[in-house]
Amino acid sequence: EDALALYGKAHRMYRKTVGPDSAEVGRVTVNTARVCLKQGKVEDAIEKYEEGLAIRRRALGDEHPDVAETLTHLALCKLESGDSEGAVVCLREAQSIYRK
User: What average pLDDT score do residues 47-72 get?
Assistant: First the structure.
């Protein structure tokens, strides 16, 4: 729980200082998703990965490697939650980014 609190604090600080659609906010959001997943909170992790993905798309563009990485992690969470079709969609998009 301490890690989530710290990431929450970092998230608020970055949103204030560099803006809500910055790469930094995207990174902190994705890191929060990783902590949620490690704590077994798969649905929370999916929510945070989706949020981080949207921010990274806005900040970095749809074809950035960080977007592909986030899609890959989101796919793993979706697979763990039983959404294999959603996982395949994410992995296909990540693969197309990596191939460019």
Answer: 98
